[in-house]
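Example (one chain per record):
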Amino acid sequence: MIPSVKKPGGNTRGLLAYLYGPGWHDEHHDPHIVASFSPRGLPDPGRDPDATLTALGQVLDAPVRLRNEGFGKPVTDHVWHCPVRAAPDDRYLSDAEWGEIARRIVHAAGIAPDGDPLACRWIAVRHADDHIHILATTVREDGRRPKLHNCGMRAQAEARLIETELGLHQVAPGDRTGERRPTQAEMHKADRLGWQQTSRQWLQERIRAAIPHAASVEELFAYLEADGVEVKVRRLPSGDLQGYSVGRPGDLKADGTQLYIPGGKIAPDLTLPKLRDRLAGSAPEEQPTARRNRPSTSWQRTTSALDTLHDHLTQHPDTWDNARAQAQITALGEIIDATAQTGPAELRNQLRSASREFARAQRSRIRADHHTAAGLRQAARDIAHAGDGPDGSTFAVLLTALVWSAILAARRHQARGHRQQAEAARTAVIHLQAAYDQAAAPHLAALTHRQPTPDITHTLAAQVRTAVPEHADRILTDPHWPALATVLTDAQTGGHSPHTLLAEAAARRELDSAHHPAQVLLGRIQHTTRNPAPNPRAEAARLRSQAVSPGFPSVTAAPPISSPPAPSPDRARSHR
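Predicted structure:
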């Protein structure tokens, strides 16, 4: 149940006309009062043919008129409006139940505390099965104004109690990091202009899509301008940035000038200080030499970078570094953004949906240490700037890593009590999983088509039972087991040990929650075996070849174990 306190207004009669009218799309049916400040009831224009909206408005405005007739500044923002909406899957609530809900909300908000005979006047109007509108005039009978600071948060807290008592859908409590919902005016303006999104939603997507491309705030603004976004910056006398606002082309004010919206009003994490802190990360951590020498694409490097996120988010709670974890979750959102921009066209709808949902999981009350996630941010930039598209198997492996990363983020938020962020991450997992299923289908079919012989498959099954005994039955009955057997056969040909690969892959992720454990292992093993197995003798030969004088031919094969014979005199002279 969501109570949503709107900005105060000054036209009681105008709001009543909307509540008792047909609605913008004829969605208002049978509007009537279900509760009010008066214990004897009020003339209801929805049920009493002799009652009028003007008369009802005059009753509600009586304390306001009385105060304004005296000395002092007139009250002009006296209309308090709060729709209260039930969840789509909640049961039908009677008028009596909605009336009691309204009384509890106005009590919690400070509009009409229980037992206060001088409280504000209010009514609750119902014109649909799933919600009511509470209208109050915020001048008390004694002429004073009620204390409404944080009234929305108090109403939300009361709604959580109502949900529990009435057995309704439990909404996650807010932590003041959520973005603002579109207002009625914004939605009607977008509808009038034929836009699918309000300006704030459109601008938020453009800013988040630009973040992986930028290494500084100035670069971010330049990218936004190139993308068609109107950017207006404010600078201090020293020339330093003080703030910024952005506008959507065609979104004009009443006087015909461009409408600009400050970044902080688009989303809490898009203020200038937070963007500057996020983009000012340190250089990526140096990778080991052996890993740097491996030929790889930006997609494969991103999958490797996600391994560091997995390692940190799966640590024991006693060793959690919350600032670092929050930075990594934020950077994970950037990787999802970049993937949605550059991934295959047929998957972008699902990936963009995942990106929109995960944006909520990126924000919490924990201050992120963005310097610790520089490697992940660099991976996002690599993808955003990648000139080559991923092949099917590489992209499927990356999506597997993203799915697991989002699952870990959801678990981390859940453990910290961040219910809204955890729910957003779980919703993002659904979209990422759908994208993976679509991307991996042809690849899995090709692997299944060339599955190994029954004898080899039987031998590999024995390896599964020894390496992952607790999950062996589920793996071997998984419809993707033939594809996994093919991958294990290919890996063995490249010099890898199937037993070792299976044990390491199972250790990277728990398999209890996996619907298709063979599919999970397959993606991890493919990433591990993209290069041949390490060969100590070949590596020693490579190091010796680097030490050879430039005048001698380079060594291309491992030298024999015995010492090489001394060169003949003729050969020695030829080298002089």
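Caption: The beta strands are 2-3, 32-36, 79-85, 121-128, 131-137, 230-235, 241-247, 261-262.
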